[in-house]
Amino acid sequence: MAAGREGTWNRAARRYARQERLECQAIRRALKLAAPRPEEELLDVATGTGLVLRELALRPGPPARAVGLDRSEAMLARVGALPAGWCLVPGDATALPFPDASFDVALCAYLLHVLEPEASDAALAELRRVVRPGGRLVVVTVWTARTASSMLLAGLARVAPEAFIGLRPLDPRPALTRAGWTPARAAVLREGYPSLIVLARRG
Hints:
Oligomer: single chain
Number of strands: 7
Helix content: 25-40%
Largest sheet: 7 strands, mixed
CATH class: Alpha Beta
C-alpha cells in the first residue's frame, strides 16, 4: 500500500466505525464460509477497527488464537479489548510478518479492491505462504452487481478515487487463481456495500 494511501486510512480511523454497519452482513457471511474451528488459528488481514474479530468472538466455539493485522496503527488503536490468546500486529499485507504455514484459515475483507493489481497479487501470494496446506481463505470485495447503488459506487470510485477510497468493484477470483488458490464457493450480497464473498482453498 502506498504511503499516501496509508495516511488516508490513518486519517479515516476516527470515523471508520460509522460505516461498519454497511459491512456487517458480508462479514458474517464470510465467517460462515470460513467456518473456523476452536482448534484452528486464524489471521484477519486488513482488520481495520476489528469488525471481523468482534463478529468472530460472538460465534460459538471461536478459535483459540486469532491475529488481526493492519498497516494503519491508528486503525489498530481503535480495535478495543480482545479475547485471551488473540492479538493485533502492525504489518503490510504484501509482506506478512509470519513464518510459512502459520495459520489454518485467513480472511481478507475490503482490501484487495483498494490495492493496485501488483500489490493485490503480492498479498494473495503472501496469504498462500502463511496458510497451511489444505487451509482456507475468504476474501470480500466491493462488487458491481447491476444495481443502482453498485453503479453509483463504481462511478464515484472512478471520478474521485481518493475521496471514495475502497469503492472500486473487483472480482478477485482470477487473482486468487493466479496466486495458487482454488476458488470453491462464492456469494453475492446487496445489503450494505454490494459485496462478493469468495471462499478459496490452498492445495
